[in-house]
Write a structure and sequence with these properties.
about 160 residues; disordered N terminus; mainly beta; single chain; four-stranded antiparallel beta sheet
Length: about 160
């Protein structure tokens, strides 16, 4: 009686776990061979797969059948750019993994540096005697001493 109970428990467990319901010592069909594809991320972005299974914004993995071809796509988060693949794929072009064994891939995303601050320069006018000085573009309109800021690359014409 105990052997029948063990066989029943094994069959229920096998069905729940995706295996065969054949009793111990029977001729069960087994399952298809599967391999794990693990994806790691460096930086901020998302990786998805075709066929479906991987859709991660953090390290993740999925199992695929022996011989399956898995295409991975990378999408950078705002403020980042996709820098490339490493592991089972390399470079920045498409990543396709033929599942003949367990494999791992890392997608690297790099932060886009902020633009440099706008540069400007100060033009200072000092005069002797009476009169005024103006500028084109506008900014200076003064008597003895004055100054104004102009963006880098601006041509300033002074008129006395």
């Amino acid at each position: 009686m105990r052997t029948g109970f063990v066989g029943l428990v094994a069959a229920v467990c096998a069905l729940a776990c995706g295996g065969s319901a054949s009793p111990p010592g029977g001729s069960g069909g087994g399952g298809a061979v599967k391999h794990t594809l693990a994806v790691g991320l460096s930086g901020s972005g998302v990786v998805t797969s075709s066929p479906a299974g991987i859709d991660c914004g953090a390290a993740c993995s999925a199992s695929f059948a022996q011989g399956a071809t898995v295409s991975l796509s990378a999408a950078a988060a705002s403020g980042f750019t996709f820098a490339g693949w490493s592991g089972a794929c390399s470079g920045q072009s498409a990543c396709t993994v033929a599942m003949s064994a367990d494999a791992s891939v890392t997608a690297t995303f790099t932060a886009i540096p902020p633009p440099p601050p706008a540069q400007s320069f100060t033009v200072t006018v000092t005069t002797a005697g009476s009169g005024s000085v103006t500028s084109t573009p506008a900014g200076l309109d003064c008597g003895n001493n004055c100054s104004a800021q102009f963006p880098a690359g601006t041509t300033v014409t002074l008129t006395a």
